[in-house]
Amino acid sequence: MSGPILFQPLDIRGVTLPNRIVVSPMCQYSARNGYATAHHSVHYGKFALGGAGLVFVEATGVTQNGRITNGCLGLWEDGQGEALQPIAHFLKQNGSVPAIQIGHAGRKASMQRPWHGNGPQTEEDIARGDFIWEALAPSALPLDDGWLTPTAMSKKDLADLKSSFAEASIRAVKAGFEVIEIHMAHGYLLQSFLSPLSNIREDEYGGSLVGRMRYPLEVVDVVRAAIPEGMPLFVRISSVDGIEGGWEMDNSVTFVKELKARGVDVVDCSSGGNSTKGATNSSLKRGAGFQAPYAERIKREANIMTQAVGLIRDPKFAEKLLCDDAADLIAVGRQFLYDPSWAVHAAEKLGQTGNFEDWPEQYGWWLEKWDKSLRAMGETP
Questions:
Q1: Contact of 22 with 53, CB cutoff 8 Å
Q2: pLDDT at position 289, please?
Q3: Mapping DSSP to helix (H, G, I), strand (E, B) and coil, where does residue 286 land?
Q4: What is the structure's pLDDT at 284?
Q5: Is the dihedral of CA 300, 302, 307, 312 positive or negative?
Q6: Which residue range(s) make up the domain with 284?
Q7: Residue 31: strand, helix, or coil
Q8: pLDDT value at position 276?
Q9: How many domains does the chain contain in total?
């Protein structure tokens, strides 16, 4: 097929993505008791209108206590899935594949919303109407001084949470989502099982790499069993902790081979987060596509489709990553917040379109006439 790879369709199981552009999950911290609001409808709808092939709804807690903040989305009860249904429907109706990321915050649960400090909750948060809850983790190790000390999960906790992942997945399917991603990155629960920095258990879920991988792989098994055979399953990983003594790339390659064997289709390659330094690893030198080498190595050595993410802003650079076979999908995050129409702009920059034909017809009709008027004045958009 001719033309930029970025705008070629991709088949994954029973789903066809119209292009390779993905909107990364980005928490909005604007839910009410785990329920989506009008903010979410407008926020996600913009990306479908802007031409993205796959749009991920943000990290969504499979339990109430598994949320990062009081403002995070949830899927622990049926009504929350029903509230997400119009969003999934709008995305599909407007040409994007609707996707959702599910997870559990682990020892990073019960945090402040970012604009209130992005740290442990305080009395000021309680005064705003939020509440503090117990955090669960593989081991009773707080993220840092002043943070909640989590409760080390019992065998019953582990079994109950696996059921919650399965039930949330079923709700996501009923809501109309066509892709599910399990969040195993950024220091949240499942990544904290993987890393020796946060997992010091002495039972079969700790110790060796095999032990530390065991619970995340069990979660993959229950989610894969709960969703249709034709539904793609993604996993987001922190490819490295970026901290001495932590999770390394060799571990990621080993782990991803196990993910593939259990029916995972795409690995979303991020990094860091297993500290108080932020959602991703701030110790890494940042630049365009700074995490793309992780996606390239995992794709090559584990023989699985990967998704590159991390300061990919230039469509030509995104196209080069695909041409170099460094990844199969390009995830764009904050750039989409800055420019919700990044995908259709990218099509124009790569010569895929030139007369607003890929824009929603409600927009393209106006923009074509606007463009002609501008050019008659000697100006361009």
A1: yes
A2: 86
A3: coil
A4: 66
A5: negative
A6: 5-350
A7: coil
A8: 72
A9: 1
CA distances to 16, 279, 284, 314 from 306, in Å: 16, 20, 20, 19
CA–CA–CA angle 277, 283, 289 (5° rounding): 110
DSSP string over 302-350 = HT-EEEEESS---HHHHHHHHHTTS-SEEEE-HHHHH-TTHHHHHHHHT
Residue 99 lies in a domain: yes
Q: CA-CA distances (angstroms) from residue 264 to 72, 90, 200, 234?
A: 25, 26, 27, 6
What is the pLDDT at residue 236? Answer: 98
What is the CB-side half-sphere exposure of residue 277 using CA atoms within 13 A?
Answer: 14
| Alpha-carbon gap, residue 297 to 322, rounded angstroms | 14
Q: Which residues contact 201 (CB under 8 A, 6 or more apart)?
A: 138, 139, 152, 207, 211
Intervals of the chain under pLDDT 70: 1, 277-284
* 100 in a structural domain: yes
Which CATH number is 293's domain given? 3.20.20.70
Greatest alpha-carbon span in the chain: 74
pLDDT for 278 equals 47
On whether residue 241 sits in a domain, the answer given is yes
CA atoms within 13 A on the CB side of 70: 17
pLDDT in tens, 145-164: 999 999 999 999 999 999 99
Whose CA is closest to 147, among 116, 197, 192, 107?
A: 107
> Catalytic residues, which ones?
188
Are 281 and 272 within 8 A, CB to CB? yes
Over residues 13-34, the pLDDT tens digits come to 999 999 999 999 999 999 999 9
Is residue 227 domain-resident?
A: yes
DSSP code at position 355? S
